[in-house]
Amino acid sequence: MSEQTAAPQTVAPATTAEPVELWAERTGPRAYTGRNNRGGEVLIASQGVPGAFTPGELLKIALAGCTGLSADFTLSRKLGESFDATVRVSGDADRENEVYPELNEVLELDLSELDEATRERLLVAAQRSIDRVCTVGRTLKAGTTVNLTFKIDE
């Protein structure tokens, strides 16, 4: 299946919901807890720490989650609300340059109940949805500017 691109989707007007706040607090040597103001938490640490994700693993999980969520509505229309899906993501780091030069995703679905033509139409529609609304994937493909400032307590 070839990659398809689409124009950015129009976003609905912002609601009066509280803005999302994100932060990571140091909780030990080479260990942080990532948090949001909705009570979500994720453990972030060096590779090998039980129960924690590395930053690179979180990047990959964010991509997999974004892909799944972006295709979910399209897939559920054809497969029903209770369909099973797994998005696997992999890619080795280039440690010399400290980047992931390539990330590979596999969206696992049971489409055995669909005929070949319906299956192909559904996969094309799912790919379009992902290309149009997966912010994480779109950002990774386009690149982004990251700005860091330091706030120093004196």
In short:
The protein has 154 residues and is α+β, with helices and mostly antiparallel strands. The chain is 33% helix and 19% strand. The protein is built from three helices and five strands; from the N terminus they run βββαββαα.
Topology (elements, then pairings):
Blueprint: E1 22-28, E2 31-36, E3 41-45, H1 55-79, E4 85-90, E5 104-109, H2 116-133, H3 135-142
Antiparallel strand pairs: 1-2, 2-3, 4-5
Note down, in words, how this protein is organized.
- The longest helix has 25 residues, at 55-79.
- This protein is 33% helix and 19% strand.
- By secondary structure, it is of the alpha+beta class.
- Strand 2 and strand 3 form a beta hairpin.
- Helix 1 (55-79) crosses helix 2.
- The strands form 2 sheets. It has a 3-stranded antiparallel sheet with strand order 1-2-3, with no helix packed on it. Strands 4-5 form a two-stranded antiparallel ribbon.
- It has 3 helices and 5 strands, in the order E-E-E-H-E-E-H-H.
- The N and C termini lie far apart (56 Å).
Report strand %: 15-25%
> What is the C-alpha radius of gyration, as a whole number of Å?
19 Å
Structural class: alpha+beta
Strand order of the largest sheet: 1-2-3
Mean pLDDT: 91
Q: What does the main sheet amount to?
A: 3 strands, antiparallel
Uncertain spans, ≥5 residues at pLDDT below 50?
A: 1-12
* SS summary, helix count: 3
Keywords:
3-stranded antiparallel sheet; two-stranded antiparallel sheet; 3 helices; 33% helix; alpha+beta; single chain; 5 strands
